[in-house]
Amino acid sequence: MTGERKPGDSVDVAFVGRANIDLTIHVPHRARPGRTSIGSSLTVSAGGKSLNQAIAAVRCGGRAALIANVGADAWGHQITATLTDVGVDTRHVRLIPHATTGTAVIEVTPDGESYITLALSSATELTTHDIHHATSDLTTEAVIVQLDLPPEPVTTLLRHRRAPIVIGNLVPHPNLD
Q: Which of 26, 111, 120, 139 would be a feasible disulfide site paired with 40, CB 3.0-4.6 Å?
């Protein structure tokens, strides 16, 4: 199965959000201020709520697309390769030249709690243009969007939708009061 499809191909669900690289370390406890906590070896993987949901949908037998931007760097290419290998439609995962792919540093404690710090590049944030382009080209039964995106592309999606929309994450964008 390939992640590249031609215009007009339909999917069951399109996921709109971020795709980033996760750097995960299991730690015995969180470091205290000014101190170091020694953890397990580093795991590097493709991540982000929308990316994870798109992969899960395909693994459950669905046809899924991801609408996201990544940097045209090694990690951006790793993300698109991961999605393509799984079978997620990647027509609307844009590789942005000279941009850095978003990176999440994740500490996981023994009780399963995760502490996440996300480094984002403003150049890879979805725009209203990205939404217009994707929605004009993609046929889908449903759209799942994350509210932690900038408000403009989310508003554009809500106004120009052709399919039912589900909110996949109610946590708003950090810049909203």
A: 26
- DSSP character at residue 122: G
Are residues 10 and 59 in contact, defined by beta-carbon separation less than 8 angstroms?
A: no
Copy the structure tokens of residue 5: 């499809």
CB 121 within 8 A of CB 102: yes
Residue 101 tokens read as: 């792919």
Query: H or E element: which one contains 16?
Result: strand 10-16
The three-point CA angle 76-78-84 to 5° equals 105
The tens digit of pLDDT for each residue in 81-129 reads 999 999 999 999 999 999 999 999 999 999 999 999 999 999 999 999 9
Indicate whether this model's pTM tops 0.90.
no
Q: What is the pLDDT of residue 160?
A: 78
Name residues whose C-beta falls within 8 Å of residue 170's C-beta, 6 or more positions apart in sequence: 147
**Residues listed for the chain:** 177
CATH superfamily, region 10-19+48-100+122-169 = Ribokinase (3.40.1190.20)
Domain ranges of the chain: 10-19+48-100+122-169
